[in-house]
Amino acid sequence: MTSTKNDDNNILHVSRLDFGNPPYPTCKKTTTFPFQIFNLPYLQSVFFFNCFTITNPNLVSNSSFASSSTLQQLSLRSNPALTGPIPPEISHLKSLKILTLSQNRLSGTIPEEIFSLTNLVHLDLSYNMLTGSVSDQLGNLKNLVGLDLSYNMIRNTIPSTIGQLGLLQKLDLSSNLLTGGIPSTIGKLNSLNPMSMNFLPLELGKLVRLQELRLADSGYSGTIPESFSQLKNLTTLSLQNKKLTGEIPRGFGGLPHIYHLNLSRNFLGGIVPFNASFLNRLGRNLDLSGNLGLCLSSSEAYSVKIGVTICGRNKINGGSDDLKQPLMSSHAPPFGNKFFLPSGFGVLVLHQMLFLLV
């Protein structure tokens, strides 16, 4: 608990409540949500981490959210007994800047009322069981810097109004049931940095400020867009487990800042278009394993192991399988919550990255 002083009356008032996350007080197994806290006139931040493990706090059955006009941050994270829909009454918290409801068991659709919280900077609803579509009202959140809706069951397409989020830097929509293409308006998000989605839209090639792009483990099938070679600030690219076909764009070898490239476990083919200098620079941060159609030119065969065979050689005709060994670890640092969001939404350590507070 944190207090702040009222200069007029020299009185201390509660401005922050934090439970469940050491060194702050932990919660009992039978903890219930104390809705009375919203009557505290100076309250700005509320955190409940791993508190509601047995008893459902029944957020939907209470309208006390309307009582607080000062609350700027609400974080209810990792609460397995927090089930049911997101209460539309949260929209009464008009001063909210950070809303984290990740790693719970929330279900139902995202209430449209959430998108009336125009002061929101970070919104993390990841790791729940949310369904339905994302409303076109998403475009109302003009101040949004971080959005994490990953690991839910959200369906249909991403609304084109996402292009109105001009300040957005972190976007994670991965591990949902989204269909269709990414709207072309995403090319307007010039501030976007790390991304994690389940698609390979050509428009991503326009996001020249991107430093981290992680699009692994989705059902997308197709070729890698040549436009990805234009992402000159890219440091990490993860496209593993995506059923990708075709060849690796030759322009990837010219990405000046890339240090982690994972294209493993796809259906890529052809000759690896990287020279010895590129291969040695990335070293074990390059993983091309699990692409049976790929091979490495014999002139580069002395380089580091990248998970492919030498062109024209295999174990049957006496060739070495020395280059077929997968990397011990090829994962980039996970997004922290995340943001931080979490949610992590969670997030990577980048120069221009902002994380959601949890």
UniProtKB/TrEMBL annotation:
It comes from the Eukaryota. It holds the Pfam family LRR_1. It is found in: Cell membrane. Its main location: membrane. Keywords: Cell membrane, Glycoprotein, Leucine-rich repeat, Membrane, Receptor, Repeat, Signal, Transmembrane, Transmembrane helix. SUPFAM superfamilies: L domain-like. It is a single-pass type I membrane protein. GO terms for cellular component: plasma membrane. Belongs to the RLP family. This is Protein TOO MANY MOUTHS. It comes from Morus notabilis.
